[in-house]
Amino acid sequence: MIPGSAYGIRVNTLSEGIVLLNKDEFRSALGQFATGVTVITSLDDDGEPHSMTANAFSSICLEPPTIMVCIAHGTHTHGYIEKNGRFGVNILKQEQQELGVYFAKKPEDQTGDVSYHYSESENGVPVLDDSMVFFNCEVVGAHVYGDHTIYVAGVNEMRRNESGAPLMFYASRWYNPAEK
What we know:
With 180 residues, the protein is mainly β. It has one domain (35-172): Electron Transport, Fmn-binding Protein, Chain A (Pnp Oxidase, Chain A, Roll), CATH 2.30.110. It is built from three helices and twelve strands; from the N terminus they run αβββββαβαββββββ. The protein has helices spanning 23-30, 76-84, 97-103, and strands at 35-36, 38-43, 49-54, 57-61, 66-72, 86-91, 118-120, 126-128, 133-145, 148-160, 168-170, 173-175. The relative contact order is 0.20.
């Protein structure tokens, strides 16, 4: 039985013959699942906005409104969320692909003339202006697994600007289903 589970689900262990996967092959297989693209916003140590592109985002439940994001250890974002306990999730539109590319880079590699602006949420979390949807989140739980932390967060503010279509990522490329 999985600890904390009401279901008698069996979990295989290495001694039961799990085949270890090649990291690149696993990444390629995961790429067959199309995802939306988000930018996670937080405040850095100086109180300035910090942003990171992420697609490991999902809703958990509607009551109470709860989401999850997975953030790699060693990223600036991980440290800022650990320190502040809150963050924003900005769902990007197709027209914002340039932002998705820009914020996927390490801060020291973010060069070029990319136009974006922030506003401020009710509790000071940066909102990436013109994103399709913004969720203002407060961490209510965290689970460290491998090289990531899974943050479970309550949503305490939402902004919607749903004009346009969502930016998507599929097979390690930006994806527009209308063009296929």
